[in-house]
Amino acid sequence: MTRTLEKEKIKGAPESVYYLPDFITPEEEQILLDKVLSAPKPKWVYLKSRRLQNWGGIVNEKGMIAETLPSWLSDIFPRFQETGVFDGLDATHRVPNHCLVNEYLAGQGIMPHKDGPAYLPTVATISLSSHCVLEFFKVPEVDKETEDEHKQTQEPEFSLLIQPRSLLVLKEDVYNKYMHGIQEITTDDLSGGNIVNLAEAFPEGLSHDRMELERRTRISLTFRIVQKTLRANKILMRR
Ligand SMILES: O=C(O)CCC(=O)C(=O)O
Ligand SMILES: [Fe+2]
C-alpha cells in the first residue's frame, strides 16, 4: 500500500511535520550505510560535534555548483514521488538535488538552527542505525545572533522521536518558523521534552522500562532542493 504524506500527520505537531516509520527496509538501510561508510575519506567534513558529507555540491549564497547525485541516493526518488514528499513545490523542482549526510556518535548533536533560504521549504530526512530526539523551538522573526541566544534557555515546543529507517518531512511553517536541534547527550529520556510521536515511533506500544533510550551512532540523509544552481562550465568561462 502506498503511504502518502497526508495520512502521516502527527497529533500535537504543526500541520507541516510528517513522520513515516519504516520508510526503508533493514536491507536498504544496510546498503545506504555501506555506501556512506565506504565513501572516499576526503568526502568527510569534520565539525566539532559531528562529521558530514555533501552530495550534489557545496551550497553557498551564490548557489551550488550542481553535481548529479549518485544512484545509491537517487534510487529512493521514486518512493519520494509515490509518497508525495516534494509535491506542492513548483513543477521544475520536484526532486532533490542535494543530500547532506550527517554522522553523530552517541553524545553528539546539532545546535538549534533553521535550514535557511538556500533551500526550498521541504526537507526529507532518512535516519540510519540509531534513534535521536529532534527538538523544535518556535522563534519570533529575529536576526541570527538573537536566535542563537534564544535556544539554550528554552524548553522545546515539541520534540519527535526519530527512529532508524524512518522518513521525516518538514515543510512550510515548521521549516520557516521553527528551529530544530539535537541535544549532545548519550541517553534520551522519552518522558521529557514533549515528544509528540511516541505512538507512531513505537507502533507495537511502549512499555515503562523503555522510557530511556541509549543512543548509538546515527547517520542521517537529508534531501533538499537547492534553489540556485550554477553550472561548472559557466563558472570556468567567467575566470
Ligand atoms: O540529522 C538530522 O536529522 C538533522 C540534520 C539537520 O538538521 C541539518 O543538517 O540541517
Ligand atoms: Fe537542519
TrEMBL record:
Predominant localisation class: nucleus
CC annotations in GO: nucleus
Assigned keywords, A-Z: Dioxygenase, Iron, Metal-binding, Nucleus, Oxidoreductase
Residue ranges constituting the Fe2OG dioxygenase domain according to the UniProt record: 95-227
Family under the similarity heading: Belongs to the alkB family.
Domain of life: Eukaryota
This protein's record includes keyword DNA-binding: no
InterPro entries: AlkB-like, AlkB-like_sf, ALKBH6, Oxoglu/Fe-dep_dioxygenase_dom
GO molecular function: dioxygenase activity; metal ion binding
Subcellular location: Nucleus
Pfam hit, one: 2OG-FeII_Oxy_2
Keyword Oxidoreductase: yes
Name of the featured protein: Fe2OG dioxygenase domain-containing protein
Organism whose genome encodes this protein: Lobosporangium transversale
